[in-house]
Here is the input.
Amino acid sequence: MSITVKNVSKRFGHFQALDRVSMEVPSGTLVALLGPSGSGKTTLLRVIAGLETPDDGTVLYQDQEVTSQSARDRNVGFVFQHYALFRHMTVFDNIGFGLSVRKWPKEKIAQRVNELLHLIRLEGLEGRYPNQLSGGQRQRVALARALAAQPKVLLLDEPFGALDAKVRIELREWLRRLHDEIHVTSIFVTHDQDEAFAVADRVVVLRDGRIEQMGPPTEVYEHPANAFVMDFLGQVNVFQGTASESGPQITGFSDVKGTPVKDFCSNTIYVRPFDLDIVHELNGQAGLAGKIIHITPAGGVVRVHLQDLHSTARVLVEMNFARLKEMGLTVGKQVGIVPKKARIFTPDYMI
Amino acid sequence: MKNNTRNALPGLSLSLGYSMTYLSLLVLIPLSACFLKTATLSWKEMGDVVWSQRTLSAYSLTFSSAFFAAVINMVLGFWVAWVLVRYEFPGKRLLDSLVDLPLALPTAVAGLVYSSLYVENGWFGRFLVPLGIEGAYSKFGIVWVLVFTGFPFVVRTVQPVLEEIEPEVEEAARIMGASRWQVFTRILFPMVFPALLTGFAQAFARGLGEYGSVVFVSSNIPFVSEMAPVLIVARLEEMAYAEATAIATVLLIASFTMLAMINVLEAWSKRRG
Amino acid sequence: MVKDTRTIPIHQIRKGEPAWVKALLITGAIGILVILIGIPVLHVFYRAFENGLKAYWTSLTGNRDTLHSIWLTLSIAPRAVLLNLIFGVAAAWAVARFRFPGRTFFLALIDLPLAISPVVAGLFFVLLFGMNGWFGEWLDAHGLQVLFGTPALVLATSFVTLPFIVRELIPVMEAYGDEEELAGISLGASGWQMFWRITLPNIRWGLLYGMILCNARAMGEYGAVYMISGRISGLNDTMPLRVEKLFQEYDMAGAFALASLLTLLSLVTLGLKTFLDKKYPVHEKSKEGQE
Here is the structure.
């Protein structure tokens, strides 16, 4: 079932949580709402669930308007950030709750709960209470509980927020596989861009109650709509420079291959750490002279922190391990920094 | 944000409607009956009742006894709270639960047993009376039984505040060279002070209205040992409704003032915490 | 400063006060509690039993008025507790789960009975239901006896004990949060299903706690009940009123026998309260990852 949000606004006192937000979630997709805290992503999710009534605007499930319908009648599955498991009920009763309030017969509830226990791989733990489970197990019970009554929509509020790094990655991969199996339209909220890109079909980036950009992960990553999105998606280097019809001109760099821009007034240029490269000697090539001050491994790549010898600004370069070894880079070494690609944004998005 | 996310839950109108009706029937209407009854007196009549010699001496006895009892409670309550929070010793848990007894024990029982303990041949009276300390049918008796009824308040407001003070705070002060006494007077006591005042105000408010215990230990002689609540009862027995109500209104206003003060103190205490 | 730190070795800082100060303070605190509370409690039982078990039993059961006062108290207190229970749950739900205009006023109103002298509270009801009161004539014309009867006793007792249950429930509800209830609603539960199956199980210990305190106060209430009971022996004396009457009649054995029952009640209350405090502390009911 598809979900459409039209011009939804919501205020809490003086705080504008949502400001005329519109978006569409095609049926069967898995969408991530991504943004910093206070961006309105959780409020948007709760409005879709019916846990919050918007001040203005409409929410449609397929073609049916549900804006004034209560959460109870929408038949959505909602996974809360802190799971909100019923602590006085066993795992079995938690998962079966939605069925039992719908007056399902006992045998059918048992059958469905067992099916779900198998799905979340927690068979044998149905008699436990929530406080006897680990964080990851609780999360899966919360998910099974939300799925029990076969909801048309599955909504997840920071589903992995309270878990440690390793369990987080396991669970998000599991969620992706699960979604591929059951294909229920799903929306989840996260502030972690890695999580959004790893799991979602589409990413919606929010800031201050407004949607900054939406699209497939690769598109958003490759073509961030503005400086905020670019910065939010990962660390960037900020340079002074000018932009012209042919592309950006960074002070200190000469010939840089960048996307041509329409607006020329900007003098701030953003370059992602892996769009920069390190060479032993500049040899007249366009680039900056820098000194390595710190090297940190980060997953599959290495982050090299440098200091620009002219402006003393910090520059961050990402490269793979093999190349670092091959070049024999060490702290204190003087090298050249050369750009591969740069991006320019209009002044209203300057940070 | 949390505060406003509550409208998806059902039952506001039912629960609020029901409880508001209940409160109106049980509290608001009786309260306004009291004020309206007082209003039937002319200013002069009102003045005659409220400022008569007998009433004035009842007020002054009530306020001074409640005040002294609350002051004694500040000292004793702080002492007990301090020991319960900071030291371990056998029987501590028993003592801790004993603190609440005055709240659970009917005040009439308290009055009965206190008068029995402090009369001339009572357990305490036989030692105290020869020394000239009259614990029953005296002003001291009234204050002392009010200390009993108000005892839990100071302990229970100070205790959690003392518990929350992290040992690091004291350690930091000690490392910077403060003596134990300086740590107490300059760090611990100021931190606890708002809670201490709150407890004082609560004990004071309780003392103002206390009746059950006082009526046993006081000889209830007009002008001498008649407390304001006792006077209200006496007026009512004379069928002098309006006069009884006028005195009650004065007590009510005093209680409201204390309530407002407690709220201000708690807000202060929270801000400091 | 640097010199000072050397004079206090680190391991001594945590040790606290010198032993003699500690001993003095502990002894003092024990002394305060024993003299103020411990001995009076023992004294009640001593005086009740000083003439032997048989005398105790006769003074309790041999007097019809005394027996009636026990029965009356046992019939009034549960009704007051029930009234305040329903009110307490409703009011706590409204206060803990919603923000509405006048909420602060509502909260102040709930606290009011604690600040009002019980004697004054009793007077309120005399003013309402007495012969000269607002409803007095009407009630009299319809042959209804409210004042000096059980209804007024229940009302006055309810007034005095009104805040006890609500005041326990509000922090409990606030501590466990609304997420479980929202989850229940989103899973399709109706309002009442949510209440019986999620809210009530979560507040049950707080509810019990509040009921115990409310009951103790209801059974022991003196001032308010004194004002409206009319004090007709054998008809509407509650236990505390009966204690006072026996005391006035110089029947000390009878007064202390009855007082011992009330004391026992308060000790049981205290025991249950301590047990619940230990077993279900409110702060542990809050969820592990507070926002």
